[in-house]
Specification:
This protein is of the alpha+beta class and 223 residues long. Helix content is 25%, strand content 34%. It has a 7-stranded mixed beta sheet, sandwiched between helices. It has a 5-stranded antiparallel beta sheet with strand order 11-10-9-8-12. The structure holds biotin.
Length: 223
């Protein structure tokens, strides 16, 4: 299903994949390092050698649960390595309160959805000290968790789970996401309990007065 292109270095696999997708191609683009890796909300994504940095071109009918699917695919793969990951909405994967993976999904519409480029970064085989100092406290890597898996083997695991999850019923994706999410988060300093996902992929939370809210954007922080 996926043609895999492996490049030594790219500015960003998402930018490269978006160009391919715009030209009507379908592929998975992997880079051993990225010089201008992009995170959500315009943030820089540090991409040293040893990490798994890749983008998948998908052409689903709707982009709604694609981010949930991507984070669940990473979560399932990391669980297979014996670790205990959790998801933080919208699509970060954490181990013991530290981020190990993030997803940047970018869609193109022209009347209908043309494509979604799902960019996934997993801090795999490099030491935390390769990241800038200010990121180290809140991040972890597979190497720092004492796990080793070749990046291409890890890629195979994640792609297999993406394929499986794309075939799942939406209700199953939402249920599995809920079971694996952090139970409590902070949004603008407010402590909220996580109830689950809407069918669009928004976050359902409850505040201290048990009032339900739907979060569509914003920076959710683990408690
Ligand atoms: C985030 O948590 O802010 C999202 C990070 C997404 C990083 C990946 S690495 C592969 C792909 N290429 C990019 O430039 N970004 C994504």
């Amino acid at each position: 299903m996926f043609e895999i292109l492996v490049k030594k270095s790219l500015p960003s696999t998402n930018t490269y994949a978006k160009k391919l997708a715009g030209d009507g191609k379908n592929a998975v683009v992997v880079a051993l390092t990225q010089t201008r890796g992009r995170g959500r909300n315009g943030k820089k994504w540090f991409s040293p050698k040893g990490g798994l940095w890749f983008s998948v071109i998908l052409r689903p009918k709707s982009p709604n649960l694609i981010q949930a699917i991507a984070s669940l695919a990473v979560l399932r793969s990391i669980k297979k390595l014996g670790l205990k990951p959790k998801i933080k909405w919208p699509n970060d994967v954490y181990i013991n309160g530290r981020k190990i993976s993030g997803v940047l999904s970018e869609s193109s519409f022209s009347g209908k959805l043309d494509y979604v480029v799902v960019g996934i970064g997993i801090n795999a085989n490099f030491a935390l000290k390769m990241l800038p100092k200010e990121l180290r406290k809140a991040s972890t890597t597979l190497a720092d968790e004492g796990v080793f898996i070749g990046t291409m083997e890890l890629l195979d695991l994640v792609l297999l789970e993406i394929k499986r999850l794309l075939k799942e019923k939406k209700s199953n994706v939402i249920r599995e996401w809920g079971k694996n999410s952090l139970n409590e988060v902070l949004l603008n300093g407010e402590r909220l309990s996580v109830c689950g996902l809407t069918k669009e992929g928004y976050l359902i939370v409850k505040d201290a007065e048990n009032k339900k809210k739907i979060v569509t954007e914003g920076d959710i922080v683990p408690t």
